[in-house]
Amino acid sequence: MSTKQDEELAQERLIDLAAEFYDQFESGDIPTMEIPTRTKTNIVFDEDSEVWVYGDRTSTRSANSVRGARKLLKAAYTIEFLVDQLEEDRSSTLRELYYLSESWDNEEAQFSGQDESNQLVEDLEIVSQVTREDFHMRPEESGATLMGPLELREQTRRGERAIHCQMDVGEGGYQIPNNPDTIDFLDHEIDFVLCVETGGMRDRLIENGFDDMYDCLIVHLKGQPARATRRITKRLHDELTVPVVVFTDGDPWSYRIYGSVAYGSIKSAHLSEYLATPEARFIGIQPTDIVEYELPTDPLADSDINALESELEDPRFQSDYWTEQIELQLDIEKKAEQQSLASRGLDFVTETYLPERLDDMGVL
Amino acid sequence: MSTKQDEELAQERLIDLAAEFYDQFESGDIPTMEIPTRTKTNIVFDEDSEVWVYGDRTSTRSANSVRGARKLLKAAYTIEFLVDQLEEDRSSTLRELYYLSESWDNEEAQFSGQDESNQLVEDLEIVSQVTREDFHMRPEESGATLMGPLELREQTRRGERAIHCQMDVGEGGYQIPNNPDTIDFLDHEIDFVLCVETGGMRDRLIENGFDDMYDCLIVHLKGQPARATRRITKRLHDELTVPVVVFTDGDPWSYRIYGSVAYGSIKSAHLSEYLATPEARFIGIQPTDIVEYELPTDPLADSDINALESELEDPRFQSDYWTEQIELQLDIEKKAEQQSLASRGLDFVTETYLPERLDDMGVL
């Protein structure tokens, strides 16, 4: 991965944007910036790439009102900040950008709230078609951890680090950096990637040596996964050509976690091709498992039922498999956590459940 | 740290507990278990050790009612499970214990909810005077990360790992394992430990090379710190004899984060001597900083005001320093995040703010 190149592209695209404003001024036009409309109604599920993308509708930010002019002024200041940041090989968080604007010499350019600066950076991502990471904007919280037979090289500010994700790390595993595109995969013996929702289950798999026994890389999702976690999952799939399976609880929120790994989320639809792994398959607790294994359950709450019903309408879940599972769950009115497999003993998940599911899927 | 010894002690204490029930039965007494009353009114601030501890009041669990007998039955089953787990050198999470009880042969011994099993394990911690970690009960979510000039050795299930927390890790740092007592400190050049509340600020300090420039170990707290994070902070302080400072936002919730690192929390008062670092000092955003540096602020919400008022009554905050700061904050009605220091430039925190505060405190 040549991030240097991506960064130069980011810089170039940002300067192009500013140059466009300049040209518009020079030719006597009112400066404008056109971006895809970012509302729910303008998100479509792209059948070919199987991810969420923006539709055809666009909105125009124009300097023909004071409010619009102020927005473009803020964009210009932010572009200057980002270009300088890239020039100096530095980085910052969205929150720092918001606070930093207080030091700008033009009060009109200062952000009035963090929502405004966050949205502007997303707009710039979309218009410039490079990612926030390439602007060197860091998230507030970092990605999760990896454990398995993978050797990688991370390009850090302090030099390169070669790390084997079993031999060179403690039981906590390798901490994914904010921008996983600073990583090169050097060598591996991975047969598949297993993304795991909860820390308790991740630790169970490590303790039972599942990564070692089945040559898999265990990616801890930590609930709804951070961008860095989704990005590295996609890169592992594409670059190492290995299957990805997603192991979650058996409830509608966990199906959404799977959905965001596999198909992207509405909030980051402009990044689906960068973050989503449509080939990822679901190996989480299925409503049929609840019935078959008589797992300990909790009753569905009203919010669970609503979420399941909206998933029945969600293009990401329009398959016979999902329709059947979701309808069964609405019928039995129960949900189960992945750790409920412990009701059949602490080794059931690694000795029986996962091997059987993986075998059924043709992964083993 | 000899964890083997701690585990043997844990096993011994658990068996003693079960033996006590046995003896009570044999001598014709109704079995009972006595534990400190775990309500807010029985928590006292111990002036000598400067941490929260339980007071003198105790409650008795007795088998003289069906309900009481069932509680002791569950305790006996849990003790057997924990002793076996230690015997086999395995571990599990609180959630797994709850689910696992479904496989026990006596239905009366099965837990009716996770609250019940969680509370029983805490009771056993208190009565046996060993920690959950020594029972090999893992938390659901793991600790945070370390970065700085420290070389450590972690005893993992797969052998020993020697790791330098700058040279052998990526930018994400070293991931603290669930039980940090598996770590030995080998070598270090640490002058002080800097615990940081937010990921954004942690990354700022790493990017600016603060750990390198000032020979400090940066501990990411990730909000309210996990037990593992508090435990390793205490061990670093005690074993390396280095000062600990805690860098947080400037609001009542962040003062509580500092309070839990320094003085322990009400929920884990029985563990204060194991987890709390009373010598830890506050280097977070102070209300006087908000005034002095004209930091960007948010207005106090009603819940903030209530929390500040209750801190004025909290024995942990009974010093002139805290009284002055909290009263000032109630007066100005404002709070500020640690990242708001970016309003004075991205390097202000590492070049000016922290060095000045550390110098004032006599740490530098």
TrEMBL record, chains A, B:
Function: Relaxes both positive and negative superturns and exhibits a strong decatenase activity.
Subunit structure: Homodimer. Heterotetramer of two Top6A and two Top6B chains.
Enzyme class per UniProt: isomerase
Protein name (database record): Type 2 DNA topoisomerase 6 subunit A
Family membership noted in the UniProt record: Belongs to the TOP6A family.
Example of a GO biological process term: DNA replication
InterPro entries hit by this protein: Spo11/TopoVI_A, Spo11/TopoVI_A_N, Spo11/TopoVI_A_sf, Topo_VI_alpha, TopoVI_A, TOPRIM_Topo6A/Spo11, WH-like_DNA-bd_sf
Keyword Magnesium included in the entry's annotation: yes
Taxonomic superkingdom: Archaea
Residue ranges of every copy of the Spo11/DNA topoisomerase VI subunit A N-terminal domain listed in the record: 70-136
Type II DNA topoisomerase VI subunit A all-beta domain span: 140-188
GO MF term (any one): DNA topoisomerase type II (double strand cut, ATP-hydrolyzing) activity
Name of the gene: top6A
Entry keyword annotation includes DNA-binding: yes
Keywords attached to this entry: ATP-binding, DNA-binding, Isomerase, Magnesium, Metal-binding, Nucleotide-binding, Topoisomerase
Cofactor(s) essential for the protein: Mg(2+)
Catalytic reactions on record: ATP-dependent breakage, passage and rejoining of double-stranded DNA
Residues holding Mg(2+): E197, D249
Signal peptide boundaries: none
Domain Topoisomerase 6 subunit A/Spo11 TOPRIM per the UniProt entry, residue ranges: 192-358
EC number of this enzyme: 5.6.2.2
CDD domains recorded: TOPRIM_TopoIIB_SPO
Coiled coil: none
Active site annotation, chain numbering: Y99 (o-(5'-phospho-dna)-tyrosine intermediate)
One cellular-component annotation, GO: chromosome
